[in-house]
Design goal:
The protein is α+β, with helices and mostly antiparallel strands and 113 residues long. It has two helices and five strands; from the N terminus they run βαββαββ. The protein has a five-stranded mixed β-sheet with strand order 4-1-3-2-5, covered by helices on one side.
Length: 113
């Protein structure tokens, strides 16, 4: 991620839809973080995905309204799943195309070998 560690992403110029790319650090694997992330994104009507990164972080992307993205960014940085321990989060924000009327947020899993 290109933005500074632990900082909020700058808000892009006008546009009603935004894309948030994120990476969350700390104890965020094996604590149902991805499941809770998908539930929060769905509740906020965001589309996108998240997955575990081999480094131990969780990475993903979400698209939605400015307000939805702002609430999601706050949740990713300060709340997360009940058992997680977030130590840092990086964000990158830009404008996005409309994501449709039925947003889908998925948990991506590593294919079984």
């Amino acid at each position: 991620m290109s933005s500074a560690s632990g900082t909020a992403a700058p808000v892009p110029p006008s546009g009603s839809m935004q894309r948030l790319r994120f990476e969350v650090f700390g104890k965020v694997q094996k604590v149902f973080f991805r499941k809770h992330t998908a539930e929060k994104a769905t509740a906020l009507r965001l589309s996108g995905w998240c997955k575990n990164d081999p480094s131990g972080s969780v990475v993903g992307e979400a698209v939605g309204s400015k307000d939805g993205i702002a609430a999601f960014q706050h949740w990713l940085r300060h709340e997360g799943s009940p058992s997680c321990q977030i130590t840092d989060a990086n964000f990158s924000l830009d404008e996005a195309e409309h994501h449709g009327d039925n947003p889908v947020f998925e948990v991506r899993r590593k294919p079984k070998q």
